Amino acid sequence: MITPVLPTYARAKVSFERGEGVRVFTPEGESYLDFGAGVAVTSCGHSHPHLVKALTEQAQKIWHTSNLYQMPGQERLAQRLIDNSFADTVFFTNSGAEALECAIKMARKFQAASGHPEKYRLITFEGAFHGRTLATIAAGGQAKYLEGFGPKVEGFDQVPFGDHEALKAAISPETAGILIEPVQGEGGIRPVPPQCLKGLRELCDEKGLLLIFDEVQCGIGRTGKLFAHEWAGIAPDIMAIAKGIGGGFPLGACLATERAASGMTAGTHGSTFGGNPLATAVGNAVLDVVLAPGFLESVQQRALTLKQKLAALKDQHPAIIEDIRGAGLMVGIKCKVPNTALQAAALDQHLLTIGAGDNVVRLLPPLVVTDADIAEAVDKLDRACRALEAKAA
Ligand SMILES: *Cc1c(COP(=O)(O)O)cnc(C)c1O
């Protein structure tokens, strides 16, 4: 018999009723160390007092008005994102996939409004993940997500990750732009080297293409800069964000330059809930935390600690861990055993991690993680590895 909730998820047999910082608690009061942050979402940790205050204060004022009226909280959040990025304008959504939908539509509309309606195709990369809507599964191009859902939405050409020649060959008179995650998340924590991002920028400028970044997972401080592409010293024309900006409240956004957004006039796009007062109150509170002086530097320092400790762990467990990779607090443990086995062993040690493609276990702790939390997590991973070794012996 089907479950009351559509059974599309493979859920671990544990639930949490309360969270505090980097820890979550089961109804029985058992504590788990959360190094998944709900897939890079609870960027400020659980129940951050500043976020709780922002949400509850807003909840007592007004929840929803719709985008038919002026939205001061939304305007403030947009302005702050603009002040801290390449962008001139922002569209708010409830999710990452919707932010990508806006980015895709905007790129097509830009070309159409510039007299090139034939340029509607986007080049994407193998291993990419851009969401679960019909267009974003086509953009992601993964067979397992496309299978059985009818004809793939037209307009996406996928090339192998890191294959420069294939990328150049894929550019046609119908190409509108290039869509890429600066750090592939679901694909297995694969950072695009800064010189490649620079190369993409040059290629787009040379060919008149729009460069679109999907920073839904790697943005909002995750890599130690507000946006991951800042490490490369270049900027996209359009960028989708979500996950971390809401700190656990559903919120996404599509950021763009004035030029790239030039086709998106009144009536061309919209959302009932997008950028609602509750969501943007939390979004503004998240930025208060992440943009506080020294915060991103502290993320960089914590990231270094984590990287060093994981390098040592890899040396101790060569039969389990093949490689450690990532950027900032977005780390992938490439496994020699099935990644699900390491995840399950970590769960036994009350450490939450997230699986990813390419047999990787992802560590995406809240950005407020401390050195002590990191030491504890790596100790739990060490125990998990030992348990797996004992099983194999
Ligand atoms: C999670 C994710 C998405 C989709 O976001 P949803 O909020 O689940 O729609 C898109 N792109 C990337 C890189 C993601 O990690």
Model description:
This protein is α/β, with parallel strands linked by helices and 393 residues long. Helices cover 37% and strands 18% of the residues. It has 12 helices and 17 strands. It has helices at 37-40, 49-59, 72-83, 96-113, 134-140, 143-146, 164-170, 194-207, 277-290, 295-316, 339-348, 371-392; strands at 18-20, 23-25, 31-34, 89-93, 121-125, 156-159, 175-180, 183-184, 190-191, 210-214, 238-241, 252-256, 321-327, 330-335, 351-352, 354-356, 360-363. The protein has a 7-stranded mixed beta sheet with strand order 4-12-11-10-7-5-6, sandwiched between helices. A 4-stranded mixed beta sheet has the order 1-2-3-15. A hairpin with a 5-residue loop joins strand 2 and strand 3 (31-34). Helix 2 packs antiparallel against helix 9 (277-290), helix 10 runs parallel beside helix 12 (371-392) and helix 11 packs across helix 12 (371-392). The longest helix has 22 residues, at 295-316. The radius of gyration is 21 Å and the shape is globular. The two termini are 40 Å apart. Bound molecules: pyridoxal-5'-phosphate (PLP). Pyridoxal-5'-phosphate binds at residues 95-97, 100, 129-131, 181, 185-186, 214, 216-217, 242-243.
